[in-house]
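FORM 12-B: Structure-to-Sequence Request
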């Protein structure tokens, strides 16, 4: 064994001398993987959001979450804005204060990329056969997008976004303030999209990417049909980024047609937007949508793809 070890060491030293196997701390080259999304830290964000219990629009849990997000991104020196409006509560009709949160990187850039998630949680886990009125935590459905963007925020300053585009993270409120079948969905994204369309502004979103339910331990993300309909080139470019980075959990086949916050962005705002969503999540809308069924490794996989994509954007 000793002889073999020695021989290995000689071989390694040779490789180092030849520059094939660079020493730690040596200059970055073409093989430099670039900024790194941290799985463990992203999962800590997910659990800290879930510790707030439910984050229903207008609730104390939502207010606590807003504080947590605001402090996180202020510390990272991003520009944070609240886009506030009132929406009638679907049961009482009383106004509910809604807040979309907009976190801007490189805020002066006139061409921008929109990365969005919803950050409210559904009032009740109505698909839970035993406890349809129980506590809904929304670790994946609500928590995963927030945790993802919080961790991505840590690497934004070291990213070289293609064409010098700016990036906005948008946290939509009121995605599912729904109690009954016909209650309106997507309150925050509808408001955001109509403001974008109707109010004067000095910038334009080239692409939008929506992130929803991306922390499933058993990750498998198919191309979503409405994304392929409204933003085919963009959608393919993301699955191409997954192929290039070796993330096999992005499966280049269409599976579900999903109504989500990307519809108002595509239909009202006219921003080509793709929904990245893993819809095969057995505990969806139950009391068991908790961190135990989620994984930081899944968030990291999505991070690897989007970090590559942001640095290799297709022509807009
Ligand atoms: Zn949901």
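FORM 12-B RESPONSE
SEQUENCE OUT:
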């Amino acid at each position: 064994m000793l002889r073999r070890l020695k021989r290995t060491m000689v071989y390694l030293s040779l490789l180092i001398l030849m520059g094939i196997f660079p020493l730690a701390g040596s200059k970055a080259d073409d093989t430099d993987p670039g900024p790194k999304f941290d799985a463990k830290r992203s999962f800590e964000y997910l659990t800290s959001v879930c510790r707030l219990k439910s984050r229903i629009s207008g609730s104390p849990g939502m207010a606590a979450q807003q504080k947590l997000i605001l402090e996180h991104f202020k510390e990272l020196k991003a520009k944070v804005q609240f886009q506030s409006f009132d929406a009638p509560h679907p049961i009482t009709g009383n106004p509910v204060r809604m807040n979309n949160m907009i976190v801007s990187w490189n805020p002066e850039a006139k061409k921008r990329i929109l990365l969005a998630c919803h950050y409210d949680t559904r009032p009740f886990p109505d698909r839970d056969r035993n406890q349809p009125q129980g506590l809904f935590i929304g670790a994946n459905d609500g928590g995963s997008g927030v945790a993802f963007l919080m961790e991505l925020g840590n690497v934004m300053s070291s990213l070289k976004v293609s064409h010098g585009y700016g990036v906005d993270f948008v946290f939509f409120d009121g995605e599912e303030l729904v109690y009954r079948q016909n209650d309106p969905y997507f309150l925050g994204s509808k408001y955001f999209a109509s403001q974008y369309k109707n109010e004067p502004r000095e910038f334009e979103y080239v692409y939008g990417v929506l992130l929803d339910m991306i922390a499933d331990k058993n990750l498998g993300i198919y191309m979503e049909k409405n994304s392929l309909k409204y933003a085919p080139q963009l959608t393919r470019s993301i699955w191409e980024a997954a192929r290039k980075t070796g993330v096999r959990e992005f499966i280049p086949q269409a599976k579900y047609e999903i109504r989500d916050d990307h519809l108002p962005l595509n239909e009202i705002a006219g921003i080509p937007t793709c929904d990245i969503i893993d819809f095969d999540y057995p505990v969806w809308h139950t009391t068991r949508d908790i961190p135990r069924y989620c994984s930081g490794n899944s968030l990291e996989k999505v991070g690897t793809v989007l970090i590559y994509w942001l640095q290799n954007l297709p022509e807009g």
